[in-house]
Fold these 2 entries.
Entry 1:
Amino acid sequence: MTFRTYRDVVGADGSGIAEQVGAQRLRVRRQLRAVRHIVAVVSGKGGVGKSFVTAALARSGAARWPHRIGVLDADLRSPTVARLLEAAGPLVVTDTGVRPVTGAMGVRVMSTEFLLESGRPLVWREPDSERFVWRGTLEATVLREFLGDVLWGDLELLLVDLPPGADGVADLRELVPQLTGVLAVTIPTDEARESVARTLHAAAAAGIRLLGLIENMAGYRCPGCGDINPLFPGNAGPALATAFGIPLLARIPFLAARAPAPEDWDCERVLEAIT
Amino acid sequence: MKFLCIDCDQQMQFAERQVPGDGTFAAAFRCPRCGRSVALLANPMETQLVGSLGVKIGGRTLDAPPLEMVRGTIQGRDDAFLEEDGVGSPVWSGAAQERLSHVPTFVRGMVKRIYADYAVQHGITEITPDVMDRARGDLGLEGM
């Protein structure tokens, strides 16, 4: 017996799966058509301050382009950026999409934070068994809906705060072919350098532009004399910048008393570089 | 996915779908020439995998509503979503959101809705702490 191929059998499959997937992608393209720059903020390693950098850039961007900055928190399981931007639900559902929540300085935010009870983990309604098989697909679907079903509107910049790990950026690129590029965040340690390097390699392999690098917690600023002394061993920022031929756009010091403000690091320069 | 009737060398056509229980998904296909039917039975894992894509076996007759999968699959707070009533919803200022954040979570959605309705009824496009104070006074909402 010789079988024909799928394409040899002329006719739709009865479900139009390919067409449905195509319609999903089209929805994302349409929803983002008025967004000028889409930048993924990535790391590879958790706890380096990626969400802090995203929120700070969003606030600075909102000062320059009022009501034209969006933030998509793609860290579905551990969302934090909405809180940093003082954004709280509920989400308003319209016939054409869901309105992003307006956070501090008019930044438009979408996050699973709006869906979850405070301090509770992301839980799926689906059966627990074999979840490893479908969880990744479901997470990609949620990200697609956050991109394609949220009324982002006319934006100068949409920042996508990706979770730690190297594979998320390529997944995002599949959904958003017009992705402007990635901005990587690291801390000085060798461990962070290794993790961030993996993510940058993955981004480069996917053909995504590497916009630059930010080194967070790059030293401790003495509140007495103002000098910056080492906080962590290592020099991941300069080393990664050299290895990948990308600019080290900012080094953010650790301050004991408060979170660094945009004027403590060259936030404006970073905005210039990524838009 | 296509089903071919080997005897007729004819593509079978989708007939119906059912979810008979225990997570099983059933789809029936029929040969348009000889009438023979087959059923595809997917186990719960397979059903879930296909469902995770946000596609419908047998095709869609209507566009997917906004955040269909998010709303259907994430177990979260009951007040996460607010249906628009056909009237433009007001924007919340940062200070108003901050004040709202002090309202206990289990009633926050309801309280937010009350303020939003008040704003819409009074033609207010942005809810600020001042608007919240006025609403409290007008509606007798002391304590919210």
Note: Chain A has a mean pLDDT of 91.
Entry 2:
Amino acid sequence: MCCKGCEAVAQAIVDGGMENYYRYRTEKGITAQELVPDVLRQMEVYDRPEVQKTFVRHAQGNIREASLILEGIVCAACVWLNEQHLKSLPGVLDVQVNYSTHRARVSWNDDETHLSEILRAISAIGYLAHPYDPSVHQQLLEKQRRDYLKRLGLAGALGMQVMMFAVAMYIGDWWGMEDAHRIFFQWISLGLTLPVFVYSGRPFYQAAWRDLRHGRAGMDVPISLGIMIAFGGSLISMLRGSGHVYFDSVVMFIFFLLTARFLELAARKRASEHTEALIQSQATSAVREVDAIETEIVAALELEPDDIVQIRPGETIPSDGVIIEGVSSVDESLLTGESRPCSKRVGDILVGGSVNIENFLRMRVTSAGQESVLSTILQLVERAQAEKPAIARLADRVAGYFVLGILILATAVGIWWWLNDPQQWLSVTIAVLVVTCPCALSLATPAAITAATGSMIKKGLLTSRGYALERLARADTIVFDKTGTLTQGQPGIDRVLCYGKLKEQNILQIAALLESRSEHPLARAFTDIELNESWALIDFRNIPGGGLTGTVNGVPYYLGNSAWLKEISGHDVPLNQEADIPDGTHILLADDKQVLALFVLHDSVRAGAMELVHDLQVMGMKVMLYSGDDKSAVEPVAQKLGMDTWRSGMLPADKLKQVRMLQQQGETVAMIGDGINDAPVLAGADVSIAIGDGARYAAAAADMVLLSDKLSVLRDGVVTVRKMMRIIRQNLGWALAYNLAALPLAAVGIIHPWMAALGMSTSSLLVVANAMRLTK
Amino acid sequence: MEIIYYLVPMAMIIVAGIVAGLFWAVKSGQFDDMEGPAHQILMDEEIFPEDSENKEFNKENNNE
């Protein structure tokens, strides 16, 4: 609806049971403002829960979060406008718009407002928003690209003709030419420039108009003003038969600016290609078993947990699930960056979005649609791209003031020249407006961030918070967890030493029963032991950093490290009594009376861990190892890897305390650990990287997630973010230096309008090209 | 020099034709995929197994 009045009329028609008017009418009614009303009418649809299932995420209570695509974003200022406008709505909790991908993340309270209200509010300020749907996004990009191609082609083809006549007239100024010919050429030039001025230049005027209507100055304002003054001024000179015409500058400026915008569009598309690939890898349909014989084809989003799904070779796995029949290999490269297929058999977990390669599989769905791992990854990526690092916010603010400054300055310069040399004022004013456009300044940071995020996802390092990149680049201390991070996380039992009367087999079964409830990586050492089905475990408790307690057959047992066991049960720990206990992780089992057994577990160091530690040290970082394990397990690993510092026997709270201490000493700390056990310290560090497997990273409080198996990706990540910061600084430095250097030259009249057009476009292109180095 | 009053409008008509051609090309989707066709040439080769190449070769030989 364009306004409250129309809305009231439409409401009255519907309430009166006259919807048929809408159903059967062949023409739309006349509206005060033809602002794609049918799109707006559809917005109500987005409030229905079954439609929202695909793109809305529910937080606690009635708080919901959705991704939207915004149409009509041309510069950082549009982003700002949308954010400000939406934030002022009641019920809207947070809005973040990503300039690079034109997507917005909005969270709102469904009690106070609805999604349709938000969409309507966006259209009220002249933008169009759709809930995010990959196919729609693709279509939009394609349409935008075609539009730009046509505008660019027109400007190029006609521009060349205008230049030709301009050259003739410049030569004519020198050699002299008949007035009749000059007038003829000028009219022809006008005729050629008009379509370029009207059609090709339209995106700039639209953006500028939108800015002005909302009382702001974006980078399109000086551009549009420059074009219009040049065109209008030339027209007046021509009609009066005196003075110079600048039609050549007009077409050239439009042509070069469009080229820069077109290349930026292409670059943005390329940089976000990998994310798009992830989105498109989400299977759209699935074969669901209805009963023993029959199957049906359903949309992947309709799948519910516990559905049985059939997957043929070559098909994309529609959601997360567990294999119940079949053996095959699966390509998870999109998710982990690992190019080799991994083999999967009954009981293994399949991740939605990966591709089944060899054999027919049957799978039980564990989570589908919004909840699935792939959806989670996509949402993490979107959140990261929507959050602006501090440096980007600064650039936005500077660009805003800059434009205001230019407008004031251009007016002053124009007036001065008008009074002193009326011949020149038009040319100088145009040059000032054009040459100082802060396009490069506005593009410098977002382009680099998009490129860096994209290149890291490709390798398997996912960024889920916007500030992570900047902080990782600054990090000077990097703290690792041991188990599952630097070591395999696939421990085996080396030896069992029994101290009590219980048989070794019983002891193993008790330990295995307790560990079967634990998520700790060490628990995997016990998974091969067959459980005694008749035993029941009650009162189970997991004490992070300590161990496990539980009552088996009426007897309370304690399983954990020696320090914790001593504290909780007061038993003397036999560790120091025997000298021949091998190195490794030591776990003790005790009841209320005494220590029953000692398990010696070993866990081998991961491939690439040594190189990673060494490389990070070469890059000037302090590498530390904090572990909850005993000294006997930590020391050999730390020494083998050549750690700067290591600490053993730490509880999660101790780790956090240590990290805080380092931070107080002025260090920027990066923490790398597995998502669950280290959650508090991950949250406390300046930047945290979770090494995730399966669905774990969904719960992680981490800023970044390593999806790949290769540890070397971490080093590549550090290299990339450092390079990114360097490129951002180069870009900002270049943009500022260029603008400041060009301004006085334009103001004193040295720079001709066409030189200004060339310089400004080159500057923008340079900045984008520089950022694209990160994608390599 | 009166000839320019004839030649220049002629040139404009040609330019109009070029622009119309470009718009048609964009609209018919010829610029939609700038990378795909370059790869397609290479893929064509794999679609035809060796024996079809031989067939072509044989045919030519037979004709001779």
Note: The radius of gyration of chain A is 33 Å.
